[in-house]
Amino acid sequence: MKAGAAMLKRFKKKTLSNFPSFRSFAEESPHQFLSGKILTSTELPIPVKELEQLEEQSLVVKLTSLTQSRGTWQCHRCGTYLPYFFARFPHAACRKECVYCRNCIMMGRVMECEPLYWFSPLAIWKKHHSPCQWEGELTHAQSNAARRIISAIEKREELLVWAVCGAGKTEMLFPGLTYALKQGLRVCLATPRTDVVRELFPRLTSSFPEVKIQALYGDSEEKSGSAQLLIATTHQLYRYSQAFDVMIIDEIDAFPFHNDDSLKGAAQRAAKGEAARIYLTATPRKKEKRRIRHKQLPAVFIPLRFHGYPLPVPTLKLIPTLRSRLSKGTLPTSILQRIYTQQTGRRQLLIFVSTIPHAEQIQEILSRRFLVASVHAEDPDRADKILAFRNRELDVLVTTTILERGVTFPSVDVYVIDAGHQVFDEAALVQIAGRAGRSHEDPYGDVIFFHGGKTNAMLEAQEAIHQMNRKAKKQ
Ligand SMILES: [Zn+2]
Predict the structure, then answer these.
(1) C-alpha angle with apex 155: 139 to 5, nearest 5 degrees?
(2) 278 alpha carbon to ligand 1 midpoint, in Å?
(3) In the chain, what percentage of residues exceed pLDDT 70?
(4) For residues 48 and 114, is the Cβ–Cβ distance under 8 A?
(5) Under 8 Å between Cβ of 137 and 60
(6) Is-same-fold flag (140-302; 315-474)?
(7) What is the SS3 assignment for 53-101?
(8) Are 419 and 451 in contact (CB under 8 A)?
(9) Closest to 185 (Cα-Cα) out of 131, 228, 236, 242
(10) 238 Cα to the center of ligand 1, angstroms
(11) Is there a contact between 199 and 408 (Cβ–Cβ < 8 Å)?
């Protein structure tokens, strides 16, 4: 798919604006809308005839969307070749059953009979004079990381920023983003989690008020994805190829990114070959740790929270009857008592559970005494409920692991009910514990893992937190 340098040169001489459909384009520049995008014909506001003309003039590259080799299909939007993602459906236009890809179906259907169109990254982006209006100050540790990030962008290198929960990762990015925007580079800040996109977007728009920034996720209002600075879920990257000069992936260890090769491939392809690639995480997986050890991945480590206080260490509480009580739709009295006592204090309570039915049951039980809501990935009101909790309109928020990372509430205690459940791996438990003690005003918080029997994940999470605190002390 890489266009040769000569071809690119030819591209640059031509302008899309000569084409009738582009003159009435809603965007200020069709180049910016199309730059580095891979789109289906239904996603393009251009008649097929005109697309063919564009193709003849080498302004767009037509790609076969699905190919088959030795009986194995591959989708060229999402890259998957896993057989169970391919299905057939009766396609009236072709009068036969056509194959389509189910892996990237959430982005619209890609079919064997319809091509994809790739637009070379021709847009010219603004060189901002002083894009960052954030007036805060970075700590010593944050400044050090910020310098490394600038250097990685300058040299177009790879860098892993390993920063504990609450280290203030987002602010560490500001000097690097400033540098990139001054150079007129295009930046994508991608993350596996929609809630993280929602959290980052207002922070970046208020810190970079004059920069065009868009948030892109499944049901985002904004759909065009044509901004110089894009904040997007990693799924949205299926629509890009060689579009970005700087690719930042926040929460790189999070589900579904960390175990999905098609998303990793998309992130790789969305960035230009010579792009800077910066990864942020509080809990790197074994693969990244190994690459750091073998000096294959440059890394900067920030073990200290921005306010300088240590990470809250979780307490493990054994309740042998826990699972049988949960299966009957009740909570053990000892947990209820603990919640009642907790609620006499000034902190709110964030409760993590393993399944949606448990979230709903516990919400029901607690709603008899407290203002409580429950959230999960499919909850249509989840953004409103998170906002209500943040505004202190709720005493308790019961959640599945969707809120394990990326969200900040200033003053909460954190309980995990059935911490031995398989959804709570080491990374998840470290992240969950990291929700407590986030603010300068209240840097502490109780973290309790209620369990029916200790697991390695619990012990490893506890040890990982101790280890970070020891490193922070040394600094
Ligand atoms: Zn696909």
Answers:
(1) 145
(2) 26
(3) 94
(4) no
(5) no
(6) yes
(7) HHHHCCCEEEECCEEEECCEEEECCCCCCCHHHEEEEEEHHHCEEEEEE
(8) yes
(9) 228
(10) 8
(11) yes
pTM of the model: 0.88
State in Å: Cα 199 to ligand 1 middle: 28
CA 68–ligand 1 middle distance (angstroms): 13
* Range list of β-strands (E), 183-330: 187-191, 213-216, 229-233, 244-250, 271-281, 299-302, 315-318
Residues 374-399: tens digit of each pLDDT: 999 889 999 999 999 999 999 999 99
Distance 8 CA to ligand 1 centre (A): 27
Q: What are 164's two structure tokens?
A: 């504990």
Going from N- to C-terminal start, the domains of the chain cover 5-119, 140-302, 315-474
Q: Do the beta carbons of residue 100 and residue 89 sit within 8 Å? A: yes
So what's the pLDDT on residue 51?
83
Which residues of the chain, if any, have pLDDT below 70?
1-29
Q: How far is the CA of 36 from the centre of ligand 1 (A)?
A: 18
Residue 86 Cα to ligand 1 midpoint, Å, equals 9
Report the topology of domain 315-474.
Answer: Rossmann fold (3.40.50)
* Domain at 140-302, CATH class: alpha beta
